[in-house]
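[09:14] KT: can someone run the structure on this one? pasting the chain below
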Amino acid sequence: MKLTTGRISQKLKTRQALIDATRDLLANGDTFTIEDVAKTAEVSRATVYRYFSNVDTLILEAGVLHRSPITSETMVEFEGKDVVERMGYLQELMFRYVSEEETSFRKLLSILVTQNGHAEGKRPYTRGGWRVGYIEDAIGPCRDHVAPEDYNKLKIALATLIGIESLVVGKDVCRQEDADVQQALNWAVKTLVTAVCSSGQ
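[09:31] RB: done, structure tokens below
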């Protein structure tokens, strides 16, 4: 029993070491291979392959898309705010997080687009759903005051305004600086919530 427990523990430690090494390489912003991960984690290439079939799978597992930037402490800030202020606050937190991790987010977005673009006959890779969950927390108070279809449309629209996608459009397509993109997105979020939630009151 002790041997089994010890082996499981060691496997978990090795797996975490590979994820940590991948995160370090992602932070550098350079393209890397399984060999680079093995070298950084100080293990053999064969060891990496025992846990992950390719570098893209490793990157997805280690990626920032699976970590929420919002803790229970930050949710306290929702207290006493109306839905417009709550959503504006959420957008600010999300934009700051995406900006700080922009290199990793862009890499992950590239992988997701490539994988899902060739996913014919396969289940597309999906991301964690915490973005939508926090939007629901923010605009929840107005749910009973608007039509269900409008509430659902609002959720979808807001989700497109608080992730890496909107940052990429603002910087790459519109050629704006981070601060200008943030200001425009925050304005859009607040304007949208005001329009939809006010119409139902």
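[09:33] KT: thanks! The chain has two domains: 2-62, 69-199.
[09:34] RB: yep, looked fine to me
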